[in-house]
Design goal:
This protein has one helix at about 25-40; strands spanning about 1-10, 15-25, 45-50, 55-60. The protein is α+β, with helices and mostly antiparallel strands. β1 and β2 (about 15-25) form a beta hairpin.
Length: about 60
């Protein structure tokens, strides 16, 4: 298990969400992050999802 980080931003740069997600791999983490974005209505906001080794897994601008 690793700690992934999902961050969502407003257009003005304000941070709307900064959530740590535990997942066993990138695919599982990405699925959890996408579900969380959908549930919170942040799918179209700028967001990034970063792996424990600081590698970018998901990005939307």
């Amino acid at each position: 298990m690793g700690d992934y980080v999902l961050t969502v931003f407003e257009k003005n740069g304000e941070k709307l969400l900064d959530e740590t997600i535990q997942a066993s791999n990138d695919a599982e983490g990405k699925t959890i992050a996408e579900q969380m974005l959908k549930e919170k209505g942040y799918e179209e906001h700028t967001h990034r999802f970063v792996a424990p080794n600081a590698r970018l897994v998901l990005f939307h601008r």
